[in-house]
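Support request, priority: normal
Reporter: lab tech (M.K.)
Component: structure prediction queue

Hi team, I submitted a job for Phosphoglucomutase from Dokdonella fugitiva yesterday, and the status page still shows it as pending. I've pasted the exact input below so you can check whether something in the sequence is tripping the parser. The sequence length should be 549 residues. Please let me know if I need to resubmit or if it's stuck on your end.
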Amino acid sequence: MSAARSPLAGKPATSVPPVDVERLVAAYYDERPDPSIAAQRVAFGTSGHRGSSFAASFNEAHVLAITQAICEHRATAGISGPLFLGIDTHALSKPAMDSALEVLAANGVEVRIAAGGEYTPTPALSHAILAWNRGRTSGLADGIVITPSHNPPEDGGFKYNPPNGGPADTGVTAAIQQRANALIAEGLRGVKRVPIERARAASTTREHDFLGAYVDGLGALIDFDEIRAANLRLAVDPLGGAGVHYWPRIAERWRIALDVVSEQVDPTFAFMSLDWDGRVRMDPSSPPAMQRLLALRERYDVAFACDTDHDRHGIVARSVGLMPANHYLAVMIDYLFRSREGWRADAAVGKTIVCSAMIDRIATRLGRRLHEVPVGFKWFVDGLCDGSLGFGGEESAGASFLRRDGGAWSTDKDGIAPALLSAEITAREGRDPGQCYARLEQELGAVYTDRVDAPATKEQKARLAKLAPAEVTAGTLAGSRIVAVLDHAPGNDAPIGGIKVIAEHGWFAARPSGTEDIYKIYGESFRDAAHLGEILAEAQQLVDHTIAA
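Reply from support: The job had stalled in the queue. We restarted it manually and it finished. Here are the results:
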């Protein structure tokens, strides 16, 4: 039914040849994208433009053109404050940062880069944008995060965050994408650029202490007094990512007993274990990729990891091991809306359309409105900004939530905050998050969840994205009556880029990935695991028929 699990899954990354970093970086400068080939054009998915220099899909030309397009967007939109610029630890991130700086300096944009060449997690950059803009009506800041998130070592990524601090909406990214592709097609003649030495020495290029500002502010988000009082044993694996130096500072600043498993940074990520498909992927919610942290399960009350740009979390509870992302989202929502007295009484629960129905049940019990949106964190940004959303979460282990006083903390995904919250939950509830989820199942009923990932070409993904409700002619799903077929999200009526079929005793959703050449089928049964298998099998038949047409 699903793509076959590689026999290398969970094995050390040294079981496969490492990426040739020197050749990868050389290809970044040497390869020229062909604008007539769709796979080599700038394409903003759910989290910016991503690709590999080996495939001519993430190269110097892409970054120069995108950055020039962003400069022109800033001028048109009247954004005149500083642009915060951060990178993760992927091999292509540093070259891409140099390229971006060359263009930003030539355009006279005031840029803030991390002090001392430090890496910058996505949430730290979002936090910096919000802090600068708080109380301002002009001179607003925005930002660029150079990261392909949890993608393999050979990938690069480039994401724009406007003054609201979160991922740019589709209208903005479409305009940037169109202009960038036009610049590439014109041979970059419209790109302003100065040498990197001049760009770094420019008066408009300044340093910013992302690390200190983010870490010092965490007390407004997390109850560290509660964690200290419980005397918990905690561990974190930064996975060689952008937050690698944040965790020791967090432990020191907030006086918590937190062991950092490793501070190693290696652009080949050879310390990882291989993901389900035998590839190196820094996904903290994937059991095959999390073998190093799982091996420490018995030594700690709770342990956690974050992906390369630290916008995703993975929670290892002593009671259950690595928690499925949906389970921990449910635990966070239940805990936060019961404990955060400073939040608005009408603050809603935000989830994407592929998140668990357990969240629906929790929202109902809490008496909170459910705000269900398409996949993509951009749909939560406005609500987190104004406090009308207390929490926004994605099935792929991305989430952000408000400060304890109800103010905005980060309007992009924040892996660090949910990780630390797992310690607060364990301290205050007297049970780890795995035990908290077991109690939710006892009280609200069990759900059985799984996801199918399989390779798909860009053409196949496009066909899947256009699947319409009328194409679903069945009256039942795995023997259960179908009650709704959706291609728009209930929370905001935005297209979901796929389809969701809801039956009395389960559901499935099918959509193409916005970041990789795969498609995803999400399914859930309210009966048992066998019934879930039937749901996914029927969903698979529908998808196979659709993308083969």
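The chain has a mean pLDDT of 95. The longest helix spans residues 529-548. Let us know if anything else looks off. Ticket resolved.
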